Amino acid sequence: MIVAPADGPSRADWETRNRRIHATICGPGGTHDDRRFDGTARAARLAVRVERFKYFVAVLPGMKDQGRSKRKRTGGRLKPFRNKKRYQLGRSPTETTVGEPRFRVIDSRGTDKKVRALSTNVAQVADGGEVTEAEIENVIENPSNINYVRRNIITKGAVIETSAGTARVTSRPGQDGQVNAVLVDDE
Predict the structure, then answer these.
(1) Residue 23 phi/psi, 5° resolution?
(2) CA–CA distance from 4 to each of 7, 8, 15, 25 (Å)?
(3) Contact criterion met (CB below 8 Å) for 3 and 15
(4) Is 140 helix (H, G, I), strand (E, B) or coil?
(5) What is the pTM of this model?
(6) Hey, where are the domains in the chain?
(7) What's the mean pLDDT in 152-169?
């Protein structure tokens, strides 16, 4: 099967390319039966098709698809009315840890960028009207997930032990790239 865009390379170029891919899959001088196409051959065929597009949107395991639900409220199936779009792309959670500060800048919608904190040991702690920079020592409690305490993962709402005292995180480190917190009363 030859897949070529209307305004792209000529048919001869695509035939040459397909022959090269066929030789890679089947070996030199090898043949294959179309009915017994293995996964490698199928992947190579798909790669030829996908290469024409600027973005390829695929939902990988562990990633969220931000598109429309595949089911109605009644449980019936909704048929897709278009292909997946780049703005529906989902990403895995960042899971910011306590440690040496590391950040990652990713593209977001439009011309904006998001700074994700992969790990950090600094928090801006507010006590009334005063804001001070404190060092994060430990995660004491995390309502998001009980395992996050053991793994020292900081999310919004987590209670952390800092050099200024116990504080609750009010920012989203995986989205904002910084940890803002307010001191809580020890009772």
Answers:
(1) -65, -35
(2) 8, 7, 9, 20
(3) no
(4) strand
(5) 0.60
(6) 11-50, 96-183
(7) 95
In whole angstroms, how far apart are CA 66 and each of 60, 85, 90, 178?
A: 13, 10, 6, 25
As a residue count, the chain comes to 187
Are the C-beta atoms of 170 and 152 separated by less than 8 Å? Answer: no
Query: What's the one-letter identity of residue 169?
Result: V
Angle at 71 between CA 174 and CA 95, to 5 degrees: 15
Q: In this predicted model, what pLDDT tens digit does every residue of 50-97 receive, in sequence order? A: 444 444 455 445 566 778 888 999 999 999 888 888 888 888 888 999
Comparing CA positions, the residue from 170, 185, 163, 179 lying closest to residue 124 is 179
The fold for domain 96-183 equals 3.10.290
Q: Please give the sequence-ordered ranges of beta strands (E in DSSP) within the chain, or none if there are none.
A: 96-98, 102-107, 113-120, 122-127, 130-141, 153-154, 159-162, 165-169, 180-183
Q: Give the pLDDT confidence of 6-44 residue by residue, as tens digits.
A: 556 667 776 777 777 666 666 655 555 544 445 555 555
SS (H, E, C) 61-82: CCCCCCCCCCECCCCCECCCCC
The predicted structure's pLDDT at residue 45: 52
